[in-house]
Specification:
Family: Belongs to the class-III pyridoxal-phosphate-dependent aminotransferase family. HemL subfamily.
Order of helices and strands: HEEEHHEHEEEHEHEHEHEEHHHEEHHEEH
Number of domains: 2
Largest sheet: 7 strands, mixed
Cofactor: pyridoxal 5'-phosphate
Structural class: alpha/beta
CATH class of the largest domain: Alpha Beta
Shape: globular
Subunit structure: Homodimer.
Mean pLDDT: 95
CATH topology of the largest domain: Aspartate Aminotransferase, domain 2
CATH superfamily of the largest domain: Type I PLP-dependent aspartate aminotransferase-like (Major domain)
Pathway: Porphyrin-containing compound metabolism; protoporphyrin-IX biosynthesis; 5-aminolevulinate from L-glutamyl-tRNA(Glu): step 2/2
Radius of gyration: 21 Å
Low-confidence stretches: 155-162
Distance between the termini: 19 Å
Bound molecules: pyridoxal-5'-phosphate
GO molecular function, one term: glutamate-1-semialdehyde 2,1-aminomutase activity
Amino acid sequence: MLYKRSSQLFAEASEVLPGGVNSPVRAFKSVGGTPIFVKEAKGAYLYDEDGNRLIDYINSWGPMLLGHAYEPVVTAVVEKAKKGTSFGMPTELETEIAKLAVSMVPGIEKIRFVNSGTEACMSAIRLARGFTNRDKIIKFAGCYHGHSDSFLIQAGSGAITFGAPNSPGVTQGTAKDTLLARYNDLDNVRSLFEANKNEIAAIIVEPVAGNMGCVPPQDGFLQGLRTLCDANGTLLIFDEVMTGFRLSKGGAQELFNVKADIVTFGKVIGGGLPVGAFAARNEIMNYLAPLGPVYQAGTLSGNPLAMAAGLAMLSDINKNEGLFDRLEQKTAYLEKGIREQLEKAGVVFTINRVGSMISVHFDATPVVDFDTAKNGDNETFKKFFHGLLQEGIYIAPSAYETWFITDALSYEDLDNTIAAVGKVAEKL
Ligand code: PLP
C-alpha cells in the first residue's frame, strides 16, 4: 500500500501545525514514518487520502463503539445543526441525555457535561478537593487522565516521594500535590495514605488501564482502593473515559461491582463529538456551582450537536441487548487468532484484554503496571505496526495504546486481520 499523498499532506501540515498534528501521538513519532491522513470513514473502515481502505482498530481512540458514521448519530447531528449549533442556554436535550446516563450508570444522581475527557478529570479533581477540603491526590504511574497539570506527573525515585512534572510548564507546586502509586499495588497505596494522613482528597484510577497498553485490575485491586478510600475519608474517582459505556452499560463499576464516588466520562458518551462528563451522587454534585462553591463552566458545554450525538449513541447502546456479549465474543475471537499466529511464528508476547479493550505487548512477562508495560520491545512493535499498515490494518501508532474493538467489525474483517498478523509475525 502506498501512502504518498498522506506524506505530502503531512509535510504541508507541519508548516502550520506543531508537528503536523493537533494531538501528539497522531504524528507517528514512536513508530517512525508519517501519519495517514483520513478522508472518510464508514463502519469498521477508514478510507485515506491515497485511496486505501484500512480496518480500524483505534476507532477515534474509543468513541466509535458502533462504527464510523453510525447512521442514528449522523442523522441526529444533521437534524440538530439545522436548528442552531450553540445557544449557551439550557436545552431539554441536556436533561434527556443526563436522565439516560444516570439510569445506565450505577451510583450517580447528577451529571455535568463538559467538552473533553481532560476537562472531566480536571473538574472531578477540583470537586473532590473542594468537597473534602484536602489538596493531595493519588494517581497511578502509566494511567492517563488528560493533559491538565495535576496529571502530567511521573514517578520520582521512590514510591512515596512527591511526583516530578514530566512536561515543562507543570510547576513543582502542582506536582507536589500529586502522589504516584504503582497500578495493582495496594501496599504502595496504603503507604501513601500512612505518609499523608488526612491529606488525600481523592484517588483517581483507570479501572481498566488503557494508556500503558491494556492493563486489567488484578482481583481485589479496585475493591481494595474502595476500602482504603472509605477508611481515610478519601473520594474514589473512576476515570471511565475509556471504559464508560464500552465495558458494559454501566461501565467498569458495573463490570467489577465496585462503586466509585465520582465517575468521569468521555469518548463513547459523545458518539464522536467533543464531549466529556463527570457524575456523582447528589451530596457531591451539589457542591458544584451554581449550587455550591466549586466553580466549573463552559461556553460550549451541553452543546446541542454534541448532546444529540451522545443521546443517539447512548440510546442505541441502552436498547442494544446483545451488544456487550457480541463485543466480548468478537474480541475474544481476535485475541485467540492473534495468539495462535504469534505462537506459530515463535514471537515472544503477552496479550491483555478486558471486553473490547485489547493490546499486544512484545515481552513474555505479565504486564500488570507501568514498569512491566515498559519492558515491551518497541522495535518489534514498530515492525508489527508498519507490517499491519501495509496489510491495510490500522492499530494505534504506539506500543502504549489499547486497541478499541467496534461492533461494526465482521468476522471476515477479524479473519483478515488474523491472517495479516500471521503474515507480519513471520517477519518479526
Ligand atoms: N482519561 C482517559 C482514561 C483517557 O484515555 C483519556 C484520553 O485518551 C482522557 C482521560 C482524556 O480525554 P480527552 O483526550 O478527551 O481530553
